[in-house]
User: Fold these one by one.
Assistant:
Number 1:
Amino acid sequence: MTNITTDITFETPPKIADATAFLSGAHQKLFDLFEAYEHSQSIIEKQKTTEKICRTLIINMQLEEEIFHPVMQISLKEKGMVSFARMNHKILRYLVSEIESMDIDSDVYDIKVKVLTEHVKEHIREKQSKIFPKVNAPDKINVWGLGVQLEVCKEELLSNSIH
């Protein structure tokens, strides 16, 4: 097994976390953004928070689909859970596209964001209760190496998404 970190240089060193801790941190960021949306005082504040929610969610789903899910499918032989997660991601992407195409002053904008919030929270509960325990089982997955891969890919996605 090769050490992927030997070929990568960083302007700032990555935060090292195991895969489930990395994803849990990403989930917490989404929870914080949902709460910020609920406490937003102006339409502009809501719009900026919604943009952050959508961008963060899309990046998180891409990380899971490109790195986390393939490892689960191969190492844990979990086709059912991966298929279920992919289906959930399609629903979340649809909701994101609906929100992004709406005017902030639409009568249903808040409702759409609320529906997205509830779907994301349920998806995360499923992942943390059913998938994470299997990932963290001894000798199944190198969660530290996977965590580094997730962090590296996240940094690349963030640097490519800055306009």
Number 2:
Amino acid sequence: MICASGKPMHLAKSKRGVCMTNTRLLLLLSILAGQSSLLWGGADDDAQALQRACDNGRAMACFDVASLHWRGAVTGWVNWDKAWAAFRKGVDLDKDQALALNQKACDSGKPGACYNVGLMYENGWGVPKDEPKSVGFHQKACDGGDAAGCYGLGQVLRLGRGIPKDEAKAAWIYGKSCDGGYAPGCYKYAYMYANALGVAKDEPKAAATYRKSCERGDLGGCNTAASMYENGQGVPKDEVLAAKIYQRGCDGGHLGSCKTLAAMFASGRGVAKDAAKAALYQQKAASLERKTQ
């Protein structure tokens, strides 16, 4: 279906009008049918609707909530804790149904569902743990164009889970995930170049790619990119740019970024010296640290 704007319905950003009303209707029908609804692009209202459906016992809605969080489509930041909590809830609602629904969706050409099945077998969630079997589903997800699935495939290749360890291929697959717009894929792609894993060490490329992962919603990418610019690691030293990237990471809730940003305001490195702002970011860091305890 095409909106009045000319965009496909699931890509339209308008929150008013007939097109969004139809989206809501299709979302509701999808939930009632117990089917995956990964077409909504992460609009906050849709995420809340899916969460309510998950809370009401709709397993596939839980998997959709998980996907929204690991793609950073709810808040703009990847949130693994919420993603895994929703995924495990979907499994625990009905282990047999969780596998059957995802397997059916995977077989019908939905690569995101293939990734779900791969995660279940890789981790032994709702099924006997079978790492070799998980590899095939990660591969199918990646081949189907799911950037998160490519990330999953890169992980098993890098770590040698269920398949011979192959860092060179893992790096290439992470690059494919990053090209697909997936922030964690960019982070791992940068990591491979920063640490010469399967590729020649290339710190300038690593810094640029960490920054890309930050821009796409990976908080670790923000902190690492900022650190590289702060210290001139592979790139010209630029404390002003580093402070801006730390700011983005801190705004997203990264503890390390808030701590460093506080220190920069306290000393006037990369920013105008400002005791009040230093105290503010120290307080935010302390608050974030309490949440981790």
